[in-house]
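Regression test attached.
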Amino acid sequence: MKGAARWARRAPLLPALIFTIVVTQLPFVATLGISLMEWNSLDPENRGFAGLDNYVAVFTDSGLRSSVWTTIVLTVTVVLVSLILGLGLALLLDRKFFGRGAVRTMLIAPFLVVPVAAALLWKHALYNPDYGLFNGLLKMVFGEDGPHVEWISDMPLVAVEAALIWQWTPFMMLILLAGLQSRPPDAVEAAHIDGASSFQIFRYLTLPHLRQYLELGGLLGSIYIVQNFDAVFTITSGGLGTANLPYSVYQTFFQAHDYGRASAAGVVVVVGSIIIATFALRVVSSLLREEARS
Amino acid sequence: MKSLRYGGLAAAVLMATAACAGAGGGGGGNENSINVLMVNNPQMEDLQKLTADNFTKDTGITVNFTVLPENDVRDKISQDFSSQAGQYDVATISNYETPIYAKNNWLTPLDEYVAKDSGFAQDDVLESVRQSLTAADGKVYAQPFYGESSFLMYRKDIMDAKGITMPEKPTWQQVADIAAQVDGAEPGMKGICLRGQPGWGQLMAPLTTVVNTFGGTWFTKDWQAQVNSPEFKEATDFYVNLVRDHGENGAPQAGFAECLNNMTQGKVAMWYDATSAAGLLEGADSPVKGKLGFAQAPVVKTDSSGWLYTWAFGIQKASKKADNAWKFISWASGKGYEELAGKSLGWSRVPDGKRSSTYARPEYLEASGTFAKQVEAAISGTKPTDPGVQPRPAPGIQFVGIPEFTDLGTQVSQKISAAIAGSTTVEQALTESQALAETVAEKNRGK
């Protein structure tokens, strides 16, 4: 009787649950299934069950392994640098000055540029060794015989990172600015009266208050930058050791037409993301707990 | 954590749906219409404009076009054809896909249609182009819309000023010497532009033609990988050194578009690339118009070295409207269409490089006189099944006609691009590439 009542309450919700399972879990199950198959769309004769071959290929493929490392370096660098720059800009924008609205709008602009357009802008208008802005500036300062830098060839990963940092700094700035503006002004005032220096206020009031905003920015930024494709595709075409995981999966799927191996790589990415996210969140939450205790 | 997991899941969803897309469907529309999936090159867009007022008017067959950029169209075609969904009756495929698709039984052979259609004049189609669209069973599976090879484009004015005569059929050594001489002929001008951007269709295309003529090959006839062979290495060393010493700035990022830009802007004195670039360099608004000379693809051990590429129309096996589809192909790939395009759009816009009669038309020669003959010679000189000094296991000049090559070529090109940038050596790049090629070879040996 009790069970029946429970089911009567649950039943109307079942369609929604099934729908959720269908749209979120089934495709993943399909991907899992495909990852166990030998399936290259151009080679239908050899389609069939492959066992764990695709996973073996994923883990033994040196290109894929190095793209895992590239993804980590790229994400960590871009998130950290844009967080620091975003924090600086947010602190500056938090003060009242003439034309603040206009400056804020201009600072946000890079984030509003379509990612592939931003990547093209950096590749051609800024980095190009012949007509790019950077070498043009070098020429203006040092003359014709001045240094000639092949920006992308000499520092490929930095080149991709710089373009991404340029795009993501405004995002971090927005989040941190929102955090700064929600800071209770009376606490700051009280600290001033108590004789705290500006640095002390920043260190002991502002920073702890901003902690969750920093974490939010870091988390959202990481999710998006791990998936970044446009910058790598446009600026270096995955060359010079800049191929990250999304680019490698794209290459396996759309260029090699190897659905099996691409699915296996995709599964590995999901599992990896879950593991990393679990650890990252555990670290973050333990920090929070310590903060609460102290 | 939740949002992250769903982020990952979203990627998985995307992949799974992409894999399933194309299943189902089936040709729509009425009896007298066909669906055509086409790449969005300018020549195809012209074709689309001319269809309703000419083809449909004459035959009563409506043509529904789907026009997409090159990468997307390849993807969509391979999905529709591999599932034999039959959504599209006709698609533009290249000489890379044609033999592979034919082997997979995805295409309708065209020989019978050609035999019955006396006006089509298959004999007029350039031998090498026709051969590249013929599968291993000897049947023709696609008809070309236009074709291209590769050749050397150079600044005649710069050569004249330096007192250099470019041979009609230069060797790579001569080209390297000339590149050294003209490097810096004008402030900021480099000797030669060669692609360095990763991609099987970018860097790998010209480089493979160089490998062929240096005596190298990707695979021997019985599927032994040869990427670290002395000939392959010599050719790659040559290419990498030439572009590092006298090539364009930013070479590891330069593809067709970047080199076209460099040539148009006077940043390089020579450029080895697709013959289709000539029409752009000699276009009415090009700053280098009239200053150019054209020579055959440089050689070392072979007679010719140019590549062969053609966009062609094939009929999907599952199509229920093959007869109407052939009528469309016969019209679009026929002589009559060239006449029509020339008269209504201008002779420089004729889809060329596929029929020998094109090169006998006075109006066409007038519009493209500086390069027309060289293009014809370049395309006719190619041997798609025998481009090097040894027999090959699969057709193709600037590619190996196997499904695995798009991936293999792209991965190898990334390593060689790094060698051009100086972050690795050719030796290292080719050793790693040999391992990749060996995996592919092993798979094919088993077949």
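Expected vs. actual: identical. Chain A has one domain: 25-293.
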